[in-house]
Known about the structure:
Blueprint: E1 4-15, E2 18-30, E3 35-39, H1 46-53, E4 61-70, E5 73-74, H2 80-86, E6 91-94, H3 98-101, H4 108-118, H5 124-137, H6 143-148, H7 156-168, E7 174-178, H8 186-203, E8 206-211, H9 214-220, E9 223-228, E10 231-237, H10 238-243, H11 248-255, H12 277-281, E11 306-307, E12 313-314, E13 343-352, E14 365-375, E15 380-384, H13 391-398, E16 406-411, E17 414-415, H14 421-428, E18 431-434, H15 438-441, H16 448-452, H17 465-478, H18 495-507, E19 513-517, H19 525-542, E20 545-549, H20 553-559, E21 562-567, E22 570-576, H21 577-582, H22 587-594
Parallel strand pairs: 3-8, 3-9, 6-7, 7-8, 15-20, 15-21, 18-19, 19-20
Antiparallel strand pairs: 1-2, 1-4, 4-5, 9-10, 10-12, 11-12, 13-14, 13-16, 16-17, 21-22
Helix pairs in contact: 4-5, 5-7, 7-8, 17-18, 18-19
Amino acid sequence: MSVLEADRVGISARLGDTRIAVVRDLGFRIESGRILGVVGESGAGKSMIGRAVADLLPPGFAPAEGAFRFLGKDLATLAAAERRALLGRDIAFVPQEPRSALNPLHTIGRQFDEHLAHLGLRSAAERREKARVHLASVRLRDSDRVLAAFPHELSGGMCQRVLIAMAFASDPKLVIADEPTTALDVTVQARIVELLAGMRRARGTAVLLITHDLRLAARICDEILVLYAGRPAEYGPAREVFERPAHPYTRCLQLANPPLDGPRRRLLALPDHMPSLRALASASGCRFAPRCPARNADCAVEPPLTARTNGRIVACQRDPSVMAPPTLLEEKFAIGAASAPVVAVEGLAKTYPGPRRWFGKAPDVEALTDISFAIAPNEFVGLVGESGSGKSTLAKVLLGLERPSAGRVSVGGIDVADESRAAREARIGTIQMVFQDPQSALNPRRRVADIVTQAMIAGRRHASWAERVARTRAILAQVGMSGDLALAYPAQLSGGQRQRVNIARALCSAPKVLVADEIVSGLDVSVQAQLLNLLRRLREERGFAMLFISHDLSVVRHLCDRVLVLEKGRIVESGPTGAVFERPASPYARALLRAVPPDDLSTPWRPFAENEEAVA
């Protein structure tokens, strides 16, 4: 008997007086001890599956047809109390944002205790010991310290492990993990994946893994379901779906993701985005056709879900092999190695004073120690390392937001320690920041033109509104956006468009250097490909240098000429990207690279040590 089965499930949403099908023809089975990966871009309907199972659909959304069966029982026929009793006990959830799922006002111990009490454990001592055991099972060894901590005192990876321990505390039959590794460090990602795979093997739990990472899903899942606009595009054994995709959308997701090894190739960037709810109301034929590079006249009629050999189901009659093969990158950027560097860092150190306590003072925190490097004109340099390694602190020093404790830092020949007005204004035109989260970086009450042209009114500059709108339209055209959006507000833009506005704002003053801090973290691979292609094109057209901070090693390899590896505030390795990735000299760089699953599924993945069992 399947643990969870979706039988032709449909979900509709209300738009005015009309109901629109947002999920259709959804069908799959998850057996005990197996993992099903659900893959697709934002808006594909992935998270809607977990919400429907938990009976937590958003207002206006409702089941339309079909059934979810849990251990053979139709969930829709259960009484509300009986269905609620399943959640947290037989059906557990691991959310995407661990910090928002944990109460910031309560310690981990109190929250774990309440969860175990809900499961029926009456003794407080028994609950305490049980919490210790479960935290140890997810490799949180100092369990007493973790239980006494508040969520903000733990890293994102530790919070995610706490939630996994709580999810498995009831020995559930099914765990639904919704993007549990998004935006985490590569080593933490690998550890979370290893925990899910290991606990699945040890306890026979069925896992529904929702992710936008097709490579990761192919590595740890037994089956993969690829969703597009709420309808299955492809379903089948994970290895076959990854190695021999039968739907053009699956192939496009592969080609949008930069490889970690082999020749560097151009990324396929899908145009536009997933159809909106309003677009679905008038959609006809294949919903992927407007973006599909393999479309033809037959796509005017929606293809049926067709069963093929070995349990595969495909919603397309076209063979992805008709798509043009990927082309290799031609490196044609002229790096000004003979010129004076635009960024020069010599012996940089940054120390933060320790917090004061009742009895004395805590030791100072050395965030950066003896940092030295240079960036040549038009050179892209990657900066990699785990959270807490000092990447963001280094960026703040370069931008003049933090003062060095020791050493010298110059940007465009200007010392960042120079706090004169002339030096500050010169830095505005020399170095700019592209922030990680455009949602919080862009003022929601200002129009795009107001945001993009902030540099035109900084200092002694006094540009007119007409000049600013004209400048905005010109820059928006350079970043691949319509000039009509100059008067739009951030809320009217998609996530990819907001990040393009973020880049446009940084380019307004024609800087010599950009500092990009995790700007593609957590984005769909299609949007990520659009932005990476955009940065390469802008580099060719405008000629600027960039310090590119990222935890995604595949992206760094694709984009950067050189890479700096930062561990605990020190540069432990640096050099040309290809040389560092192919022959890492430091143990830390080798550990980071080992944590990324290889593109070739026949290569065993051992993220943490050469002698560990492969994750699969």
